Amino acid sequence: MFDARAAIVLSLIIFGAAACSSPPEEAVLRQFFTAARLRDTTALGSFATVTFEPHIDGIVTEFDVTHVTAETRTAFTRAAVSKARDGAKTNHLILQLSMNIRPDVDITNYDGEIRSKDLTIQAPVKLPDGRIAQKTLIVTMQHAVLKADQEMVGRWIVTGIR
């Protein structure tokens, strides 16, 4: 009887912790707004294709994610990535940044897909004139998934903000 109770309590703790933990995209957003606030273009360049300029857009120090869209998927082929023409140039950059965690992988050797989602956030934004305005921002995040014997999943990167 004791083992069953202990198992139930342990399960509740694990499920509770999982429910309260933030999704990986939220951690990337925190990094994004921190690097943007500091105008750290080197850091931003490693996980974002856009910026949020403090002297133009303002400063975000906290935010709440209020909505996340379902993922969309856009397939690509290794031939398109190798040629890097048209929209493939953008895909190539997204692939490079997303798969940066796997420097041993040559992204031009794989077919795959870019997965995208939009996160709606509410944030108090400190404007360049010192006022604070509550804003709704929509942040587009994407990551690459390369098709191989076993899928290789890249990290989420910030590719749009409006």
What does this protein look like?
This protein has 162 residues and is an alpha+beta fold. It has one domain (24-161). Helix content is 34%, strand content 30%. It contains five helices and seven strands, in the order H-H-H-E-E-E-H-H-E-E-E-E. The chain has helices spanning 2-20, 24-37, 41-44, 78-83, 87-98, and strands at residues 59-60, 64-68, 72-76, 112-126, 132-146, 152-153, 157-161. Strands 1, 2, 3, 4, 5, 6 and 7 form a seven-stranded antiparallel beta sheet that branches. Strand 4 (112-126) and strand 5 form a beta hairpin. The chain starts with a helix and ends with a strand. Residues 6-21 have low confidence and may be disordered.
Quick structural summary:
With 162 residues, the chain is an alpha+beta fold. It has 5 helices and 7 strands.
Strand content: 25-35%
Report the radius of gyration as a whole number of Å.
19 Å
SSE topology string: HHHEEEHHEEEE
Oligomer: single chain
Largest sheet: 7 strands, antiparallel
Count of individual beta strands: 7
Shape: elongated
Give the overall average pLDDT: 84
Query: Unreliable stretches, pLDDT < 50, 5 or more residues?
Result: 6-21
How many domains? The number is: 1
Measured distance between first and last alpha carbons: 55 Å
Helicity level? 25-40%
